Amino acid sequence: MRQPDLLFRRVVRSGAEIVGFLCGRRDEVVTLGPMYLLNEARGQGTGGRLMGEFLAWARDAPMRLWVTDYNERAIRF
Fold first, then answer.
1. Cβ atoms within 10 A of the Cβ of 65, count?
2. Which residue among 1, 18, 27, 51 is least crowded, i.e. fewest CB within 10 A of its CB?
3. Could you say which DSSP state residue 56 is in?
4. C-alpha R_g of the chain
5. Taking the model in full, what pTM does it have?
6. Prior bond to 34 cis, omega within 30?
7. 43 — phi, psi (to 5°)?
């Protein structure tokens, strides 16, 4: 049996092209990731909108985010 509230998935399109996505999962904590935006979608508020939807879905649950040391863009975001 699927439980849709356990998974978060959003895809952003420009026409037929996927320009970004964000996924999350709810277990003991909420885990964010993966998230990706094409260069053309960056700096336009797309990531912020995706994150806003994710945070609304997660509500006040404890969260976990794993980011590699070399992913400076993700750390800044």
1. 12
2. 1
3. H
4. 13
5. 0.82
6. yes
7. 75, 15
